[in-house]
Design a protein that fits this description.
Blueprint lengths: L1 H19 L5 H6 L4 H22 L1 H6 L13 H20 L6 H17 L5 H37 L5 E5 L6 E4 L4 E4 L6 E5 L7 E3 L3 H36 L5 H19 L1 H10 L5 H21 L5 H16 L4 H28 L1
Antiparallel strand pairs: 1-4, 1-5, 2-3
Length: 365
C-alpha cells in the first residue's frame, strides 16, 4: 500500500502539471506575448520555484490535506490515501485529455469525500469538509472576477491619463508624412507642406491612418505582464504542491523535503508532456485579450493565491485564474459564452466524478 500511495500521488502530480502549469502564462500565450513553448517554459520554471518555496511557507496546507479530522484516525492509513490520490488523478487526467481546465483541489475534495464515505460512513465529518474546504473554493473565483474587472478598469484610466488611446491614429488627407514619432506623453509629427493631419481613430480613417505608438507605456505593460505570469506560476506551485504532498506526509511515505522535490519533478514533466489542449482553451477559446488585460487578470490571480497559501486556505488556482479570464471577457464584452459554459460544467462535475472514482478505488482496495 505504501508503494501504491507513492505511485498514485506522483501520477496525480503529473496530471496536475499537465492541467495547471500553463495557467499562469496562458494570458501571455493568448495575447501573443509568447508562443506556446515559451509560455510553457515560463510556467514550468515558476511553478517549480513555488513548489520548492512551499516547503517553508505552506505547512498549514500540508496539514489540511493529510485528511486528519475528516475521518477517524484509526481509518486514516495508506490504503485510504491511495484511494484518494487515485480518484483525483483519474479525474484530472480525463479533464486534461479533453482540454478542460479543472481544479485539482476540487478533485481532491471530492476524492476525500468519496473514499471517506466508503471507509467511515456516518463518521465522516462533513461539516469540517464544507467549512474548511468548500467555502473558500466557492468564493475564490468570484473574488478573482471582481479583482480582474477592477484591475482592467483602473488600468484603462491610467492609460488614458498617461498617453493617447490604444486605437488613436493620425488621419492623412493626401499622402503620409515622412516621419511620425509619439511618446507616452507627447506627440511630434513631421510632414511635408500641403499635407493635412487630423487626430482620429482607426475606424474613422482606416485608409490613410498612422497609428500613434505608446512605446514606453506598452513596454512597461509587457514587462509587467511577464512578471505577473511568473508570479501566478510561483503562486500555483506554492498552493498546489502542499495539497498533494499532504497525501505522502499523511501516509508517512516521504518527509516533506524529498516529497516536495518528487512532486515538483512530476508536475514539471506533466506540463511539458501534455499541457497543449488546456493551454488552447484558456488562451484562445474563452475570450480575446490584450497585454494590459492579461496583466490585470494575472495580478488578481496571484494576489488571491499567494495570500491564501500564506494563510493555509485551500483555494483553487484553476478557478482563480479562470475567474481572472472571465473578468477579462466581461470587461471587454467578448466573453465566449459557449466555451465558458463548458468550463463551468467541467467544474461542476469534477467533485462528483472524483468522489465516485475514489469510492470505487476504496471499495476495491
Amino acid at each position: 500500500m505504501t508503494e501504491l500511495l507513492l505511485a498514485s500521488t506522483l501520477v496525480l502530480a503529473f496530471a496536475n502539471g499537465a492541467n495547471d502549469n500553463i495557467k499562469g502564462a496562458a494570458t501571455l500565450y493568448g495575447c501573443g506575448g509568447l508562443d506556446y513553448r515559451g509560455a510553457l517554459t515560463l510556467g514550468t520554471v515558476s511553478v517549480a520555484l513555488g513548489s520548492l518555496a512551499s516547503i517553508f511557507v505552506a505547512t498549514a496546507l500540508v496539514r489540511a490535506f493529510t485528511a486528519k479530522g475528516l475521518v477517524p484516525d484509526a481509518l486514516l492509513d495508506a490504503r485510504f490515501l491511495a484511494a484518494v490520490a487515485t480518484g483525483a488523478a483519474l479525474t484530472v487526467l480525463a479533464a486534461t485529455r479533453i482540454g478542460m481546465p479543472i481544479s485539482t483541489t476540487h478533485a481532491l475534495l471530492g476524492a476525500l469525500a468519496g473514499a471517506g464515505v466508503v471507509v467511515a460512513g456516518s463518521e465522516l465529518d462533513g461539516a469540517a469538509l464544507a467549512r474548511g474546504f468548500a467555502l473558500p473554493l466557492l468564493l475564490s473565483p468570484l473574488l478573482a472576477v471582481g479583482l480582474a474587472v477592477a484591475g482592467i478598469w483602473t488600468g484603462r484610466r491610467a492609460s488614458r491619463a498617461l498617453g493617447p488611446e490604444p486605437d488613436a491614429c493620425l488621419c492623412v488627407s493626401a499622402r503620409a508624412p515622412e516621419a511620425v514619432h509619439a511618446g507616452a506623453a507627447a506627440l511630434r509629427v513631421r510632414a511635408e507642406p500641403g499635407i493635412a493631419l487630423q487626430r482620429g481613430t482607426a475606424e474613422s480613417c482606416p485608409v490613410h491612418g498612422l497609428r500613434i505608438e505608446r512605446a514606453g507605456l506598452e513596454r512597461a505593460v509587457d514587462w509587467g505582464h511577464l512578471l505577473s505570469a511568473s508570479l501566478v506560476g510561483f503562486a500555483r506551485g506554492l498552493n498546489d504542491t502542499p495539497k498533494i504532498l499532504g497525501l505522502l506526509v499523511g501516509g508517512a511515505v516521504l518527509a516533506p523535503v524529498p516529497g516536495a522535490l518528487c512532486i515538483a519533478v512530476a508536475m514539471a514533466a506533466g506540463g511539458l508532456v501534455a499541457a497543449r489542449r488546456v493551454a488552447g482553451t484558456m488562451a484562445h477559446r474563452m475570450t480575446p485579450m490584450t497585454p494590459s488585460e492579461g496583466l490585470a487578470g494575472n495580478l488578481s490571480t496571484s494576489l488571491l493565491v499567494v495570500g491564501a497559501s500564506r494563510l493555509g486556505v485551500p483555494v483553487s488556482t484553476t478557478h482563480v485564474s479562470c475567474g481572472g479570464i472571465f473578468g477579462i471577457g466581461l470587461s471587454n464584452g467578448e466573453l465566449r459564452v459557449q466555451a465558458a459554459r463548458q468550463v463551468l460544467v467541467a467544474w461542476l462535475t469534477t467533485l462528483p466524478v472524483a468522489a465516485l472514482l475514489a469510492a470505487g478505488a476504496m471499495a476495491l482496495l
